[in-house]
Each structure stands twice: as structure tokens, then as C-alpha cells.
């Protein structure tokens, strides 16, 4: 699905005197099947932008369209994975993965689909376990299975692996890329980790400033999997760091 943002601004009323503008005049497009990374420092508005794409919040001004239709709220074609696991504590893993589809009445071959994604995520052996019996990595795998079992056309991910150890993080990142390649959904992934951005995305959108706006967009055509020790990976990392540094210097000069 093609996503288009045009001059999107998000403002919060923080007091009777002034408003807090988080995002200002954000414009970009995402092609069907892209894996787009929203990259920026903590607190720059990345999660707010993702919430707007999910329909959890609405822009103060500007418009967001998906295949020509303006986003006015949540929709089953868009699924979201959050920073921390959001499993229902009294349901087992299999019931959690199936929960959203059952709620929508999407039950055709549901048991088969749930088992398929439990296998893909490597947690089929824990289908009867409840969330407090899972490690953080296993719980996030279950959340990813739940997000994908309904075959969403757009998957939104809000720094979902930030709390995981390095080894688990790398493994799930690889699983996510393989699922994206096989399922052919559009992905929008928020992170502050430059290496993670380069490892996953085919397009990286740099977000910076107060209020935040887009300072650059990088397209990456390197084949998967991507090794951080290659010269091409290092070249891209250096260019991104230089762009953020230039933006920071320009910001400081205005203070």
C-alpha cells in the first residue's frame, strides 16, 4: 500500500499560554513493499509520527493518505508492534496471537495461521505458556506473530527490540527481514540505532530538530543480510552520522 504524508504537523496543548509543536510540515511517501526506517534521537517525535500512521492520533494539520484514502483512525490493514510486549496476561501464547483476529471475526483458517506464525517465530513449543513464563525475547516474538497473523498490509514497529540483548536482537531482526521478504508487507520501523536502521531498511528517513522535520532520506539497495563490518555498511553509517552532525551544528548556531 502506498502511504503519502503532506505537510503534517502535530501540536499538543501543554498550557493556556503556549502549544508544544512536536512535528512540523512532514512530507514524504512510502511505496508498496518498502521497509522504511524513521531514524532520530530519543524524544524527537518518532513515536508520535508512528502513532499518526497507525491512526492512534490525528494530525493537527496536514494529511496522511493510504492508497488515496485519508487516515481517520485505526484500521485492520495496519498492525503495530510496541517497544514493550503487550500480551494479555491471562491468555496463553496461542490465544494471544489469535486474539486480534478473533476480535475482528477474521477466523478463516485461523488455527492454521496461528500455528504457522508460532513456527516461524520459533515459539511453537510455548503455545500453552502464559506471558509471565516467557523471556522478554520470546514475548516480543509472540507479539510479532500476533501483529502478522492477520496478514496486515502495513506493519508499524516502535523500537520493538530496544530492550533485548544483542544476540536476541540480531536474531529477531533477521527473522523480521525474512518475514518481510516472504510476506511482502510494507514496514515502517522507528529506531534511534543507526546500525539497526542500516541492517533493516531499504529507505531511511532522518528526523531531527525542535519541532522535528525531515533532514534527509537515504535509499539503500544493499542485499540482505547486511554485515556491519563491510565497507559499504560503514560508508552509509558515516554519511548518516555526518548528516546528523551538520543538522546539530546548524541548530546550535540558531540558539
Textual characterization of the structure:
The chain has 7 helices and 10 strands. It is an alpha/beta fold. The strands form 2 sheets. The chain has a 6-stranded mixed beta sheet, with helices on both faces. Strands 2-1-4-5 form a 4-stranded antiparallel beta sheet, covered by helices on one side. Helix 5 links the parallel strand 7 and strand 8. Helix 2 packs across helix 3 and helix 2 (93-104) packs parallel to helix 4. The protein is globular.
Question: Can you lay out the helices and strands and say which pair or pack?
Answer:
Blueprint: E1 3-13, E2 19-30, E3 35-39, H1 46-54, E4 61-66, E5 69-70, E6 78-81, H2 93-104, H3 110-120, H4 136-149, E7 154-158, H5 166-183, E8 186-191, H6 194-200, E9 203-208, E10 213-219, H7 231-253
Helix pairs in contact: 2-3, 2-4, 3-4, 6-7
Shape category: globular
Radius of gyration, in Å, reads 19 Å
Which oligomeric state applies?
single chain
State the CATH topology of the largest domain: Rossmann fold
Number of spatially distinct domains: 2
What is the straight-line distance between the termini?
A: 41 Å
- How would a crystallographer describe the biggest sheet? 6 strands, mixed
Percent range of helical residues: 25-40%
Mean pLDDT reading:
92
Strand count: 10
Look at the structure and give the CATH class of the largest domain. Alpha Beta
CATH architecture assignment of the largest domain? 3-Layer(aba) Sandwich
Given helix and strand content, the structural type is: alpha/beta
Strand order in the largest sheet: 6-7-8-3-9-10
CATH 4th-level superfamily of the largest domain: P-loop containing nucleotide triphosphate hydrolases
How large is the count of helical segments?
A: 7
Spell out the helices and strands N to C: EEEHEEEHHHEHEHEEH
Determine the strand fraction and express it as a percent band: 25-35%
Amino acid at each position: 500500500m502506498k502511504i503519502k504524508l503532506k505537510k503534517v504537523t502535530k501540536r499538543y496543548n501543554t498550557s493556556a499560554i503556549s502549544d508544544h509543536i512536536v512535528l512540523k510540515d512532514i512530507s514524504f511517501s512510502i511505496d508498496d513493499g518498502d521497509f522504511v526506517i524513521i531514524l532520530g534521537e530519543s524524544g524527537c517525535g518518532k513515536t508520535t509520527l508512528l502513532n499518526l500512521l497507525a491512526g492512534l492520533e490525528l494530525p493537527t494539520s496536514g494529511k496522511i493518505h493510504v492508497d488515496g484514502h485519508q487516515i481517520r483512525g485505526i484500521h485492520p490493514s495496519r498492525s503495530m508492534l510496541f517497544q514493550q510486549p503487550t500480551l494479555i496476561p491471562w491468555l496463553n501464547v496461542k490465544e494471544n496471537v489469535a486474539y486480534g483476529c478473533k476480535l475482528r471475526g477474521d477466523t478463516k483458517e485461523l488455527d492454521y495461521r496461528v500455528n504457522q506464525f508460532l513456527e516461524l517465530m520459533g515459539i511453537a513449543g510455548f503455545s500453552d505458556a502464559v506471558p509471565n513464563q516467557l523471556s522478554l525475547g520470546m514475548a516480543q516474538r509472540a507479539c510479532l506473530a500476533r501483529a502478522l497473523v492477520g496478514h496486515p498490509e502495513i506493519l508499524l514497529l516502535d523500537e520493538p527490540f530496544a530492550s533485548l540483548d544483542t544476540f536476541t536482537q540480531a536474531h529477531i531482526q533477521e527473522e523480521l527481514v525474512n518475514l518481510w521478504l516472504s510476506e511482502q508487507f510494507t514496514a515502517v520501523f522507528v529506531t534511534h540505532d543507526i546500525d539497526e536502521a542500516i541492517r533493516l531498511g531499504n529507505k531511511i528517513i532522518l528526523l531531527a530538530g525542535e519541532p522535528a522535520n525531515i533532514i534527509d532520506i537515504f535509499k539503500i539497495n544493499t542485499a540482505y543480510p547486511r554485515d556491519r563490518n563491510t565497507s559499504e555498511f560503514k560508508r552509509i553509517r558515516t554519511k548518516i552520522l555526518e548528516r546528523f552532525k551538520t543538522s546539530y551544528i546548524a541548530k546550535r548556531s540558531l540558539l
